Amino acid sequence: MPGISGKTAGVGKDIIDFLDAVAKHFGCNFVVTSGLRSSDGQARAMYENWTKMHRGVKPDGCNVYSKSVLSEANRKKLDEYYRKANEDKTATGADKKKAEKDFLDLASMVKSAHEKGRAVDIPKSSIPKAAYSAIVKRMTEKTEGRNDIYHFQADSTIAAVTDKDQADWGPAKGGAK
Q1: Which one of 111, 138, 157 terminates a domain?
Q2: 1, 28, 116, 131: which one has the fewest Cβ atoms less than 10 Å from its Cβ?
Q3: Which of the 8 DSSP states describes residue 157?
Q4: Average pLDDT in the 18-30 region?
Q5: Do 130 and 154 lie in a common domain?
């Protein structure tokens, strides 16, 4: 059934309504894999996806997080903690546990639109090119260097979808008008 599902609780109603309209227009289902999360949840998401995010540096050499959000020195610290917790074969269990805690403590200070309910992550495989084009007219895609998800966010309120918007998106599918 076309629409939006998944972890939508706490995400701005304007964002959900907009994405639902886009999904229905294009006859697809967007499953939100991450919506609202606490600072601890943000830190855990960073930890669990650190290697998918190329350790905070995208393949083009740019940092995933702006330096105003995560300094280069702190990005390097996070990577050191991650390496010790997951890759250092000489680290003891206690060392690994402490390194993970240190990562999470530092990462919890990295602010994300997820913490305000103004961001969603959606698998790239569920968003056709035309739907993507419609989404980025109203939301910003923050590239994280990942190949599996889009991170969309809206810092301001998204206006309700109009018939003109839908006409601009192109032909509807799945019974949408």
Answers
A1: 111
A2: 1
A3: P
A4: 96
A5: yes
Locus of tokens 């966010």:
153
pLDDT of residue 6: 97
CA distance 95 to 155: 39
Q: Which residue carries 């229905």 as its tokens? A: 24
CB 78 within 8 A of CB 50: yes
Across the strands, what pairs with 169? none
What letter represents residue 13's amino acid? K
Tokens of 19: 């994405």
The tokens describing 91, both together, are: 């680290």
The residue behind tokens 């540096």 is 57
- Pairing assessment for the beta strands 119-123 and 140-141 based on DSSP bridges: unpaired
- For the record, the structure tokens of 106 come out as 């530092």
- Which amino acid does the sequence have at 176? A
Is this model's pTM higher than 0.85 or not? no
Q: How many CB atoms lie within 10 A of CB 34?
A: 20
pLDDT, residue 176, reads 46
Domain boundary among 64, 85, 111: 111
